[in-house]
Write a structure and sequence with these properties.
- It is built from six helices and six strands; from the N terminus they run E-H-E-H-E-H-E-H-E-H-E-H.
- The chain is α/β, with parallel strands linked by helices and 167 residues long.
- Helices cover 40% and strands 15% of the residues.
- It comes from Yanshouia hominis.
């Protein structure tokens, strides 16, 4: 079994992910996190380059859906502006939200990738659901002690991942 704390791939940001390459490897849909992946926390507008990236993904024939632990009041307007379906209150890292997102896209987990910025929600949840996992660096540091603690706990895992990944 793959390490549940390690993503399959890691990128600096979502715009560094090549949708055509994902499609070529058999990926037909992508589950997207919101905060610090598509935009900064509580920001109603996508980060620079995200709209263009979404068009590339659609152009590659990929289905797209948002999965967020945030409330529907936060996720619905953002998803609507992007023209995306969504699952709010995702309860990541539990696999149920990922599996519901796959079902919504009418895809199996093997045909699906997930993109997110956190090990303890996005990576573990994708792994538990059997979804290909791409981890991106957060767009900006989050405020609050809880996020700082999670990021501190992620550091040794990411260092170990970087040492072990094939070059």
């Amino acid at each position: 079994m793959k390490n549940p704390f390690y993503p399959d791939e890691r990128r600096r940001g979502i715009t560094e992910i090549d949708p055509a390459a994902l499609a070529a490897r058999g990926i037909r849909g992508i589950i997207l996190d919101v905060d610090n992946t598509l935009t900064t926390h509580d920001n109603p507008h996508p980060a620079p380059g995200v709209l263009e990236w979404l068009e590339k993904a659609r152009g590659a024939g990929l289905r797209l859906i948002i999965l967020s632990n945030n409330r529907p009041e936060r996720v619905s307007p953002f998803a609507g502006m992007l023209g995306l379906a969504f699952e709010a209150d995702g309860k990541k890292p539990l696999p149920g939200g990922f599996l519901r997102a796959c079902a919504h896209m009418d895809l199996s987990p093997r045909e699906t990738a997930a993109v997110g910025d956190q090990i303890f929600t996005d990576v573990i949840g994708a792994r538990l659901a059997g979804v290909f996992c791409l981890m991106v660096d957060p767009i900006e540091p989050e405020p609050g002690w809880f996020f700082r603690l999670k990021r501190r706990l992620e550091r040794p895992i990411l260092r170990a991942y970087e040492r072990r990944k094939p070059q």
